[in-house]
């Protein structure tokens, strides 16, 4: 049929057009007749890639956690055993696990506290240009180089660095020294103390908390807050009974990232902090210098299990809608 | 008369849901055909079956005598005006309208000429350079119409095309669509849940419920002679009289429909009823009545005296207005 | 528009938000100062003087250039692979409802949801089991795997925003699947894909945790930096490299933001 004649002329063409021919035409017809064919064609490459390369490696690793290492020869014994998991409960290893989980928990709570005002301001008060600026202001630190960020903190926390200088200028050196004198969290300088490790963790993962909290707060209509005030609630009560419960899924979503990332990190505690190991460092050391792949594998199961429970709980709280 | 679209025993099931259930249907060429029903009644699925977006689970669909089981949408000379208009946001209006011609391989100058003509046809000349986002709802609706018509389809499908427009624009578009259809002589198949729209525009109406066609007929048929309680209730909010009551009047124990405007208030020899309320509708007033244990409505002209709430009145109607329905229960 | 838009924030909130933002940005700004310091033995603050000398020194360092070249190669190839796989996955998941949809989403997100060290050590042990020698391809294998999610998140968000009836409208107007893809789908998701690709590039260019396990003796720019961090040998050069890395990653991030700012958020939380 030709459509060159005016539109107003009555249509006289055939009701069914011939096939377009060519391989695209006939393949397209087959996709229409069998929509599953297209679906399978689309899914096969990514599923094969992720299934073989990622899941395959992961299961191979997990399988090795059920092997053990011969203490005398240092060779891996390929017999199924739970002996390696038993080793996790040695005091030294248990210590590592407790240290890492505590750090992850403290970092998560601190990140939530610091992130909330930023997210709240961005969601409720920032408009137009300011909103875009806030968004970029969170996105840039999130995406800029992880190593550079860690490096920047090595500069900041160094004994001769800017933080010491600021304390000196404010005549507060005594405060810094008193802090560093506290056992466990103190040390020779900030860059070799748990305080330093904590600060770097907090800094590096903070944007991961801001974004989901902001997303959750964006969904709270301003009228809720007005309604609460209208019904006689003080700002504090409004926060406790209206804003916080509605932002909670966002906080939980953000905490997934801060918690999981802290659990698995092995570079930050290596560069800033005391010489005591975190789970990530233990895994790294076991698979590298110690050559104990089974124990390294068993160690990786710890964050997987913890995150499994965490994600399960988060899902029940509806946190995934806020990501 | 040529049959444009015919369904024979067509069903479309989604898992356990029978969206379309054993439907027989025949739409003549040049007809303005409305599919009317509540949401989920299967009318939109029927439209999608004609367009080719869905395939029947069983049964056959023919378009101008050709079975279309194996014909994908892009080979059916049938075009659709979508409920959300589905204008391509990345193209300007002229390229939207010319899209079908571009796919056919028509040259740029030629297809833009045809698209401009189509835009004139829908009273939007000179809008070609704008983007869909810059147009109002009514204008977008016209563009969608032009984009479909420029391909000269044998059948034009319209899925609730006026649903998103405000009342005044709706009424204007109803008239325009009808005029356009008469002018072009294309078969229009129109899905709506608005009974007023179906009755005022269509040559014939099919009333859908639960995946089945309840009744097919002219608007007058559907409105004045509903064959089932559902149709009586859905189209024109007729009063449905109970079998016990109807038996006293006619001797037959069936449901019957009685249009509100057929009811008159009389001084004597009527049926005793009690006024339960009234609402002023502008041109008319609707009076709620209790007739025995039935609740019915009457429509009276606005200049008539509205009886007091709670008043005992007598009502009457011409026997021919009482329409017996087929489904006994 | 919300009515509270004109209301101004309490001072305490403003201050807390401002301090929070400053906390996120000042450390990065510090890098730019240190790149020009004359001090080359310690991290002394304030810098005793400023010089451009280290830019030239860094420019003439072949090891830095080699690492940069490797990083760019890896990031480019990984991004291309991730864009193909991520788009296919997003299209499949958002266009059709099928059994196992949730599983597919989980599979894509898993490499980023689990700590990077797990991905890294799993890949390394798999390479050793399968006897695969380390090469640029072992690095790419790892990078592409966790970059898929970034492209996927961006594409899924855009697919969700693109009305499903557009595809039907195109087919209704006579276009087959391939024509519909070319004329309707691609133009509509194009910017989201580009944004996803840029973020994937930034992610790969910067990645160190997985890379330490899959690189063997090869050195990407982050690996080069990590070695300097653990055993500082040439602090001034590290300072300059850090500044360059910030610049190289910031540009694609800003570009991605501008490509997707109308409507869907850059799926940054998927990093």
Automatic annotation (TrEMBL), chain A:
Q: Main subcellular localization, coarse class?
A: membrane
How does the protein's chain sit in the membrane according to the entry? Answer: Multi-pass membrane protein
Name the keywords, alphabetized. Answer: Cell membrane, Membrane, Transmembrane, Transmembrane helix, Transport
InterPro entries in alphabetical order: MetI-like (IPR000515), MetI-like_sf (IPR035906)
Compartments where located: Cell membrane
- Membrane spanning segments where? 37-63, 96-120, 132-152, 242-268, 289-312
Cite a single Pfam family from the UniProt record: BPD_transp_1
Keyword Flavoprotein present in the record's keywords: the answer is no
Q: Which parts of the sequence belong to the ABC transmembrane type-1 domain?
A: 97-311
Family membership, please give it. Belongs to the binding-protein-dependent transport system permease family. CysTW subfamily.
For this entry, the protein name equals: ABC transporter permease
What organism is the protein native to? Answer: Thalassospira povalilytica
Q: What is the lineage of its organism?
A: Bacteria, Pseudomonadati, Pseudomonadota, Alphaproteobacteria, Rhodospirillales
TrEMBL record, chain B:
Sequence ranges assigned to domain ABC transporter in this UniProt record: 5-235
Q: Which domain of life is it from?
A: Bacteria
The protein's UniProt keywords, in alphabetical order, are:
ATP-binding, Nucleotide-binding, Transport
Q: State whether keyword Cytoplasm applies.
A: no
Return the InterPro entries for the record. Answer: AAA+_ATPase, ABC_SmlMolc_Importer, ABC_transporter-like_ATP-bd, ABC_transporter-like_CS, Mo/tungstate-bd_C_term_dom, P-loop_NTPase, Transp-assoc_OB_typ2
What protein does this entry describe? Polyamine ABC transporter ATP-binding protein
- Which GO molecular function annotation, any one, does this entry have? ATP binding
Instruction: Name its species.
Output: Thalassospira povalilytica
From TrEMBL, chain C:
Membrane topology for this entry?
Multi-pass membrane protein
Ranges of residues in domain ABC transmembrane type-1: 68-256
Q: Where in the cell is it found?
A: Cell membrane
Q: Which domain of life is it from?
A: Bacteria
Q: Where exactly are the transmembrane stretches of this chain?
A: 12-36, 70-93, 105-126, 132-152, 240-259
One Pfam short name: BPD_transp_1
Q: Is Transmembrane among the key words of this record?
A: yes
Q: Does the keyword Transmembrane apply?
A: yes
Q: Name the PROSITE patterns for this protein.
A: ABC_TM1
For this UniProt record, the keywords arranged alphabetically read as follows:
Cell membrane, Membrane, Transmembrane, Transmembrane helix, Transport
Indicate the family of this protein: Belongs to the binding-protein-dependent transport system permease family. CysTW subfamily.
Q: Please give the name of this protein.
A: Spermidine/putrescine ABC transporter permease
To which species is this protein native? Thalassospira povalilytica
